[in-house]
């Protein structure tokens, strides 16, 4: 049986009185804990404590008054120590230890007197507290150890069993659980955790029993109490790290939800702002007003636009008409504008956009295809579309999380996305923004239409009121024949309606519908995809995603889509995306001689240069062909004072230098970086210098291509050549520009350049032929060993098959040797030419 030993502090009063009729009475001090006087503080930011602070003085005085009436065993209050953190007050008192049960008697008397006085004072005004005798040592501390329903009871000595702890703690409140002591490191005290149902019970037990000593036989155990947090430190973190298969999918879902609900609407709004020029200063009304009243007044004459120089350009005018027709109807397919670089595609489209005054979004594939990494490609597309905010680092972080997920749960969390998925995500948000642009513009048009109708109604009403006032001044006529006249008028109106064609009447009824259709078409934005070409990097993925997106925009009638490319072959991606609908193809070729001449004359006339082209000048102009960029260069040079002949020669000479650099390289190191060899470039240049076009198959099968199409495709991409098609297959090869025909002729007529390139070309052919001859000789030697019985090994009479093979190899070797000898002679002459010229 455990016996409780109270730890009351014994104070022997000096000079204690000795009663004449009995023994000396010992005066001792003890303490009681009064709970629920103040609010129990649950944390640092518990604002209820301020209420207790404001009422502390009154509550303490009221408590003193109620307890002072007790006089059992010489009860006398020595001090009251508020302990607001735990909601109570420590009441220290002195008493006469005239019996063993003095403290129990005092506790019972205190509770009875308090109950008779209506209970203890409380911060809420409700008497819910009680008086508890402190069995341990009062500890009035103000550390950040806030009350909780769980207290940790540490044992400084032998462990105490659950039954004993329960009997000791149960009077203070209902207990949910008591844990057994667990092993602890050496030097640390073992402990049990006691979970009370209420925080008030835990606060009472902690303040009453802290420092209490329990004896069991010859051993004594001191109890040390401390609040324990309901949730252990890092418990949430430990649980999350211990359940990755649950946590990671939930995190992915939450991040996706956050992106979808917060960032995607913001990004859609930013894209809409870019399309509708919300952030363009020139579109602000204040800026327009300021410009109208300042700069435009000073340069009023500049507003008068001269006639366009393309009025006489038949090819461009036809293409422009086709684009306008496409934009005038609801989109059902994609328009594909193709033509060689410099043919004026961008200028033509810009002219149409300026005239239509519709909102547009331009995506330039050129800079995107030049991106050195997928991250830069995605960032470039986001910048062009106005996709913001864009977190470029998230893909790298997601990739690292996927790697960590593989190590934790054995599978990816699905957070990292591929390049196609990232591009598709940006374009999906852009699609939503384009829908908003169309609906917003349509609402604006409807609003303007309603305002116009109201104005017309008001004007009509004013006219009727004016007509009525005039009619009243004329008086009232006789009513005798009025009915007959009205019947006659009705008959005339009926006959007029019957004579009106049905189509005209139906057209009048459909006119409002047609007006609404026109407004619906005008509200659609225009999407232009420029430089739709295959290039370095992930071009296939980008073009495929853009093609599918363009097809979706046109099929759902969200926007008019115009794709611009230099090569007609690049429409294959669009054809795959729209398998059931044909593309709207618009070709913008070089202008013919008449259109080019009219274009140049008009441009010069706009510059106040009235030039009458002679036959010689027209002949020189024909050398440029109809390429817009070359014609613009000619016009610029003529404006600066050059003659037409001189300007054309200057353009050709400049083209010679450009071809030498771009097709052959400045030196050997530069030539090695080209996607073709010098021999391949010289073969094409030499053939095209003498023919307007050459066969694609013929040059592909001959040396130095030997069936490799990549160099030819790269030359086409560099605009050195233009590959024509027939029935969908490559058929012919032409110069990349009309002027290149004359450039190629100049290169061929340059004796030094021709000799250098022919010499290098012949050396390659000789090396190839000698390699073949060595292979023939080796095989003939093998055949000789197989026919050793013959007197002349090359006859091979012992085997007809070997004989035929030998004759074939001999003929091939003879042909190769003849070619080598011929080329060696040519090289000798070429070397002499180089020696004489240098």
TrEMBL record:
Q: Name one Pfam family in it.
A: RNA12
Membrane disposition? Single-pass membrane protein
Q: Does the keyword Mitochondrion apply?
A: yes
Keywords (alphabetical) are: Coiled coil, Membrane, Mitochondrion, Mitochondrion inner membrane, mRNA processing, RNA-binding, Transmembrane, Transmembrane helix
Concerning SUPFAM superfamilies, the annotation shows: P-loop containing nucleoside triphosphate hydrolases, RNA-binding domain, RBD
Species, as recorded:
Armillaria ostoyae
Basic and acidic residues composition bias: residue spans: 456-466
> Which InterPro entries does this chain map to?
Mt_escape_2_C (IPR018850), P-loop_NTPase (IPR027417), RBD_domain_sf (IPR035979), Yme2_C (IPR039627)
Extract the ranges annotated as region (Disordered).
456-476
The record's similarity note reads: Belongs to the YME2 family.
A single Gene Ontology MF term assigned here is: RNA binding
Could you tell me what this protein is called?
Mitochondrial escape protein 2
Role summary: Plays a role in maintaining the mitochondrial genome and in controlling the mtDNA escape. Involved in the regulation of mtDNA nucleotide structure and number. May have a dispensable role in early maturation of pre-rRNA.
Provide the Gene Ontology terms for cellular component: mitochondrial inner membrane
Q: Where is the Mitochondrial escape protein 2 C-terminal domain?
A: 316-786
């Amino acid at each position: 049986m455990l016996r409780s030993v109270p730890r009351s502090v014994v104070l022997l009063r000096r000079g204690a009185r000795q009663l004449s009729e009995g023994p000396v009475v010992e005066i001792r001090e003890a303490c009681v804990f009064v709970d629920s006087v103040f609010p129990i503080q649950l944390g640092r930011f518990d604002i209820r404590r301020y209420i207790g602070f404001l009422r502390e003085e009154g509550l303490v005085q009221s408590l003193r008054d109620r307890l002072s009436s007790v006089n059992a065993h010489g009860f006398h209050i020595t001090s009251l120590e508020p302990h607001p953190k735990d909601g109570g007050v420590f009441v220290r008192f002195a008493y006469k230890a005239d019996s063993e049960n003095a403290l129990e008697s005092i506790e019972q008397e205190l509770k009875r007197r308090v109950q008779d006085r209506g209970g203890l004072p409380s911060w809420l005004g409700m008497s819910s507290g009680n008086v508890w005798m402190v069995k341990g040592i009062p500890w009035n501390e103000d550390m950040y150890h806030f009350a909780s329903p769980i207290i940790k009871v540490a044992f400084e000595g032998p462990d105490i069993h659950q039954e004993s702890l329960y009997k000791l703690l149960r009077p203070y409140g209902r207990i949910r659980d008591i844990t057994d002591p667990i092993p602890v490191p050496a030097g640390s005290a073992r402990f049990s955790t006691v979970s009370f149902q209420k925080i008030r019970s835990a606060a009472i037990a902690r303040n009453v029993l802290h420092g209490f000593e329990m004896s069991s036989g010859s051993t004594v155990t001191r109890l040390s109490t401390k609040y324990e947090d309901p949730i252990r430190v890092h418990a949430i973190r430990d649980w999350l790290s211990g359940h990755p298969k649950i946590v990671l999918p939930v995190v992915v879902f939450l991040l996706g939800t956050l992106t979808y609900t917060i960032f995607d609407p913001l990004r859609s709004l930013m894209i809409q702002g870019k399309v509708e020029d919300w952030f363009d200063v020139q579109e602000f009304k204040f800026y327009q007003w300021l410009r109208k009243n300042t700069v435009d007044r000073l340069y009023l004459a500049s507003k008068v636009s001269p006639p366009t120089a393309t009025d006489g350009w038949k090819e461009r005018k036809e293409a422009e008409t086709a684009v306008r027709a496409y934009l005038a109807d609801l989109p059902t397919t994609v328009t594909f504008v193709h033509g060689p670089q410099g043919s004026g595609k961008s200028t033509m489209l810009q002219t149409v956009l300026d005239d239509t005054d519709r909102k547009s979004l331009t995506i330039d594939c050129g800079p995107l295809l030049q991106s050195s990494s997928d991250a830069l490609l995605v960032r470039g597309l986001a910048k062009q579309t106005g996709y913001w905010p864009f977190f470029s680092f998230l893909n790298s972080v997601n990739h690292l999380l996927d790697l960590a997920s593989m190590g934790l749960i054995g599978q990816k969390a699905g957070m990292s996305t591929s390049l196609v998925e990232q591009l598709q995500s940006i374009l999906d948000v852009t699609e939503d923004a384009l829908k908003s642009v169309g609906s917003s513009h349509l609402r604006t048009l409807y609003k303007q239409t309603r305002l116009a109708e109201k104005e017309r109604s008001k004007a009509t009403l004013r006219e009727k009121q004016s007509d009525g006032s005039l009619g009243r001044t004329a008086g009232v006529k006789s009513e005798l024949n009025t009915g007959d006249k009205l019947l006659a008028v009705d008959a005339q109106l009926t006959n007029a309606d019957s004579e009106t064609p049905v189509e005209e009447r139906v057209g009048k009824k459909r006119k409002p519908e047609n007006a609404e259709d026109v407004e619906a078409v005008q509200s659609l934005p225009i999407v232009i995809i420029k430089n739709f070409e295959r290039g370095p990097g992930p071009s296939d993925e980008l073009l495929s995603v853009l093609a599918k997106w363009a097809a979706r925009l046109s099929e759902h009638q969200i926007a008019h889509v115009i794709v611009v490319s230099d090569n007609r072959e690049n429409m294959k991606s669009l054809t795959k995306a729209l398998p059931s609908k044909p593309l709207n193809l618009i070709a913008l070729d070089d202008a013919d001689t008449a259109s080019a001449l009219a274009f140049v004359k008009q441009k010069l006339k706009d510059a106040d240069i009235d030039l009458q082209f002679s036959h010689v000048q027209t002949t020189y102009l024909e050398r440029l062909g109809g390429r817009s960029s070359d014609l613009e260069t000619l016009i610029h040079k003529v404006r600066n004072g050059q003659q037409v002949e001189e300007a054309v020669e200057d353009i050709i000479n400049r083209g010679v230098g450009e071809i030498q650099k771009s097709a052959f390289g400045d030196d050997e190191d530069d030539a090695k970086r080209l996607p073709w060899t010098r021999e391949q470039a010289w073969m094409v240049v030499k053939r095209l210098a003498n023919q307007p076009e050459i066969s694609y198959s013929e040059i592909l099968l001959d040396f130095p291509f030997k069936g490799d199409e990549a160099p030819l495709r790269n030359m086409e991409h560099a605009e050195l050549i233009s590959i024509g098609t027939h029935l969908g297959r490559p058929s012919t090869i032409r110069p990349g520009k009309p002027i290149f025909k004359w450039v190629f002729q100049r290169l061929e007529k340059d004796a030094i350049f021709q000799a250098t390139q022919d010499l290098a070309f012949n050396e390659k052919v000789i090396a190839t032929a000698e390699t073949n001859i060595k292979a023939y000789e080796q095989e003939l030697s093998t055949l000789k060993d197989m026919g050793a019985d013959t007197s002349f090994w090359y006859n091979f009479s012992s085997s007809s098959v070997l004989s035929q093979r030998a004759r074939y190899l001999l003929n091939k070797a003879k042909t190769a040797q003849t070619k080598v000898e011929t080329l060696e002679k040519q090289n000798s002459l070429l070397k002499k030419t180089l020696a004489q010229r240098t």
